[in-house]
């Protein structure tokens, strides 16, 4: 290209950060990404981008990009380059030996909501279909697993019934445990615009902290962390007494009402207000605003999901919609926001240990038979695999001997980090597949496989409102980095050879060898071939996309599922006919009891710590940590503390404080913040060793999980705090 003026090119894509799924136009010169702007045609953002999205072009290159496979000597800084065949062969040899001697359940995968739909499909086929292990979980377990189990329990299927256009027609927005202003900034702008256009729009915000989202609330309920089920039951109690039920909807479209009615009888407004530590008048006002609204839309995120009772919280919130008939109409419905760009795509393709593609269940024999037939395998293992926390516990016990971690940083993001570190130290082989070097997890890896990143590969993703976007390749990946699905495919080929070398028994005579089986099952040349196979898995299911192909997505723009054969557009809203995908066709009221938090405060650990996101950083900062401008608002990790608590503990702004829980401690700089209620502390979850060596907030958090969803309780840890005094 020397002497030739570079031509500015553009490629359509989507932002790789939050589940809003904003459309992005990548500006590039064919080799490097030079700029980004919002895609004016994308219905998620209509051309807008937040601070993170508008700086994306500054994150795509850097010294820390993984460019070639690397072998690592644990405990050292020695990384030696390998060629792809060498790297995959080394890995396949160990994996084949473990599979041959210990069985397939001794190997595990831990993947990410940032993988594409194609990646998710291929890695699940590799794990569940080829190897025969269901131990494959995703970091989406940490953010939306409770919404999945909540939807399935109440509505019969993991299907978000609403879309962003419902923000524009809702009369009441009930925002619970979601700091939309920081975690989904473009959606927050849409909410602000709706409020400006229609001041009568009632916004209720429920959050233990007075967040920037709460700043636009008409009613703000600063509940005690973990008391959401009591709040929702209390609101339902008031809705019953005040006559706001939709009896026709309850009778025609639901079941389980009498049990729930009996349950909420004891959740009197006075008791609930005391339990949640809010004024009874505010509780009543919120219930009445919800009940009176012609259309009420609930939005929630980690505040409900990251809980040892996350499923209960989800179903108790959905109860409010079913009792008032607030579902399946414009502006009405329970809408869980996803944290990551393709958490939804992972759910669709079966990217969790209890799932199979097309919203099928491992535990369901018919579902297993359907996918086994589509994959051309004899059978699938019937037992769901481990979710994230038990998976790393099994690794520490030695029950799982090796783990392949893809596009995520569990040493920073998992609760009770020291347990995760112990597990990785114990593992026989830790493989890390990532686009970036130097994450906290890399220190524990034996092998690093370089993955192509955003803008460097074709991909499909599904955002929070079920909308599928086609991301195009803008520039080549650096070095020999490959798309994740291609690494999984190539590994299958080499693992086949390694299993044959050990004479590992084949399940049947269908294939002449493991190598032949791999060639048959992973005959994927490109994204299109993967999509066409996955698409078939959705036929006749709630998420049927048999009418979609890449040309429809490119010509008509991103589409919401379902989009079955013969459709001309995606479906904006589900359950408009009042028919739910349950055996009876009725939605189910659930009646959980309020159970509190997993680790209550006591005399030794008398304060409550909650963790969360900042506006300008993303996860463990592999990308946002490269952009100086994004440090402007928050340059380092910190601890927010309420003024009276700060005074009592002799703490003030900018002092250092030691925060301790039963599992570890952090040193954090103090910010006194009157927006917290007494006894509550807040620390951001982003900062890792590179930015704050003594401030890994998940050293404090506990590994208690929801018994149904397996999601950990990040939102409440009992801690003590003391000043760090220098002599
Ligand atoms: Fe990206 Fe989310 Fe910001 Fe949109 S709102 S630009 S998807 S981080």
General description of the model:
The model has no long low-confidence stretch (mean pLDDT 95). By secondary structure, this protein is an alpha/beta fold. The protein has 23 helices and 28 strands. It has four domains: 9-59, Phosphorylase Kinase, domain 1, CATH 3.30.200.210; 70-142 and 342-451 and 483-524, Rossmann fold (3-Layer(aba) Sandwich); 145-337, Dimethylsulfoxide Reductase, domain 2; 607-723, Barwin-like endoglucanases (Beta Barrel). Iron/sulfur cluster binds next to helix 6. Iron/sulfur cluster binds at residues 15, 17-18, 20-22, 45, 49-50, 52-53, 184-186.
Question: What is this structure's SSE topology?
Answer:
Layout: E1 9-14, E2 23-28, E3 33-38, E4 70-72, E5 79-81, H1 84-102, E6 107-111, H2 117-131, E7 136-138, H3 145-155, H4 166-169, E8 172-176, H5 180-183, H6 185-197, E9 202-206, E10 219-221, H7 228-241, H8 247-253, E11 254-255, H9 257-264, H10 269-276, H11 280-292, E12 296-300, H12 302-305, H13 310-324, E13 333-336, H14 343-348, E14 355-356, E15 360-361, H15 365-375, H16 388-397, E16 402-406, H17 410-413, H18 417-426, E17 429-434, E18 447-450, E19 459-462, E20 467-471, H19 484-501, H20 514-521, H21 527-537, H22 550-556, E21 559-560, E22 587-588, E23 607-612, E24 638-641, H23 643-648, E25 656-660, E26 665-672, E27 680-684, E28 717-723
Parallel strand pairs: 6-7, 6-16, 8-9, 8-12, 9-10, 11-22, 12-13, 16-17, 17-18, 23-27, 24-26
Antiparallel strand pairs: 1-2, 2-3, 4-5, 4-18, 14-15, 19-20, 20-21, 23-28, 24-27, 25-26, 25-28
Helix pairs in contact: 1-19, 2-19, 2-21, 3-13, 7-10, 7-11, 7-13, 16-18, 19-20
Iron/sulfur cluster is lined by residues 15, 17-18, 20-22, 45, 49-50, 52-53, 184-186.
């Amino acid at each position: 290209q020397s002497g030739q003026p570079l031509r500015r090119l553009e490629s359509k894509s989507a932002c790789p950060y939050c589940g809003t799924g904003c459309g992005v136009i990548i500006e590039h010169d064919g080799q490097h990404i030079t700029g980004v702007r919002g895609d004016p045609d994308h219905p998620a953002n209509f051309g807008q981008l937040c601070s993170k999205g508008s700086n994306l072009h500054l994150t795509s290159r850097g010294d820390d990009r993984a460019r070639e496979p690397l072998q690592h000597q644990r405990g050292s800084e020695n990384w030696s380059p390998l060629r792809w065949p060498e790297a995959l062969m080394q890995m396949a040899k160990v994996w084949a030996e473990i599979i041959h001697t210990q069985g397939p359940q001794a190997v595990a995968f831990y993947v990410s909501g940032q993988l594409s739909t194609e990646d998710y499909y291929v890695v699940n086929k590799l794990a569940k279909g080829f190897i025969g292990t269901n131990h494959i979980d995703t970091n989406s377990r940490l953010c939306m697993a409770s919404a999945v189990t909540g939807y399935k329990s109440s509505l019969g299927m993991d299907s978000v019934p609403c879309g962003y256009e419902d923000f524009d027609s809702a009369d009441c927005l009930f925002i619970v445990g979601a700091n939309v202003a920081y975690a989904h900034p473009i959606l927050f702008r849409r909410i602000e615009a709706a409020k400006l256009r229609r001041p009568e729009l009632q916004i209720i915000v429920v959050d233990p902290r007075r967040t920037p989202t709460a700043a636009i609330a008409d009613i703000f309920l600063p509940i005690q962390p973990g008391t959401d089920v009591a709040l929702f039951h209390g609101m339902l109690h008031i809705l019953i007494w005040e006559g706001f039920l939709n009896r026709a909807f309850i009778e025609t479209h639901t079941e389980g009402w009498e049990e729930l009615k009996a349950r909420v009888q004891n959740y009197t407004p006075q008791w609930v207000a005391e339990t949640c530590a809010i004024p009874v008048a505010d509780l009543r006002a919120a219930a009445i605003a919800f009940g009176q609204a012609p259309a009420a839309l609930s939005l929630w995120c980690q505040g409900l999901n990251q809980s040892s009772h996350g499923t209960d919280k989800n179903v108790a919130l959905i109860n409010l919609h079913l009792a008032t008939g607030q579902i399946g109409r414009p502006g009405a419905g329970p809408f869980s926001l996803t944290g990551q760009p393709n958490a939804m795509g992972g759910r669709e393709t079966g990217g969790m240990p209890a799932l199979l593609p097309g919203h099928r269940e491992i535990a369901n024999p018919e579902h297993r038979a359907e996918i086994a037939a589509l994959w051309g395998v004899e059978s699938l293992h019937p037992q769901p695999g481990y979710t994230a926390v038990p998976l790393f516990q099994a690794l520490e016990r030695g029950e799982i001997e090796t783990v392949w971690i893809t596009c995520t940083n569990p040493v920073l993001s998992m609760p009770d980090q020291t347990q995760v570190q112990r597990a990785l130290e114990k593992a026989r082989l830790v493989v890390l597949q990532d686009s970036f070097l130097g994450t906290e997890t890399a220190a524990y890896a034996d092998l690093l496989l370089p993955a192509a990143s955003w803008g460097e590969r074709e991909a499909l993703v599904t955002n929070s409102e079920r909308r599928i976007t086609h991301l195009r390749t803008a520039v080549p990946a650096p070095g020999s980095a490959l798309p994740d699905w291609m690494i999984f495919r190539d590994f299958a080929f080499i693992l086949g050879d390694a299993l044959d070398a050990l004479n590992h028994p084949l399940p049947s005579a269908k294939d002449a060898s493991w190598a032949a089986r791999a060639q048959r099952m992973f005959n994927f040349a490109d994204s299109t071939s993967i999509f066409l196979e996955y698409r078939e898995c959705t036929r006749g299911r709630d998420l049927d996309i048999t009418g979609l192909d890449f040309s429809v997505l490119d010509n008509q723009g991103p589409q919401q599922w379902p989009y079955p054969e013969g459709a001309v557009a995606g479906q904006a809203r589900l359950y408009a006919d009042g028919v739910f995908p349950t055996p009876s066709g009725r939605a189910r009221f659930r009646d959980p009891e309020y159970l509190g938090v997993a680790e209550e405060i006591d005399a030794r650990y008398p304060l409550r710590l909650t963790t969360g996101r900042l506006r300008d950083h993303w996860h463990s900062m592999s990308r946002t940590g490269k952009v100086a401008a994004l440090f402007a608002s928050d340059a380092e990790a910190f601890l927010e503390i309420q003024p009276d608590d700060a005074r009592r503990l002799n703490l003030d702004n900018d002092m250092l404080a030691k925060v301790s829980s039963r599992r570890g401690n952090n040193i954090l700089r103090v910010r006194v913040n009157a927006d917290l209620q007494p006894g509550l502390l807040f620390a951001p979850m982003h900062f890792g060793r590179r930015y704050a060596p003594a401030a890994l907030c998940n050293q404090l958090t506990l590994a208690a999980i929801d018994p149904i969803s397996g999601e950990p309780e990040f939102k409440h840890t009992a801690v003590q705090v003391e000043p760090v005094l220098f002599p």
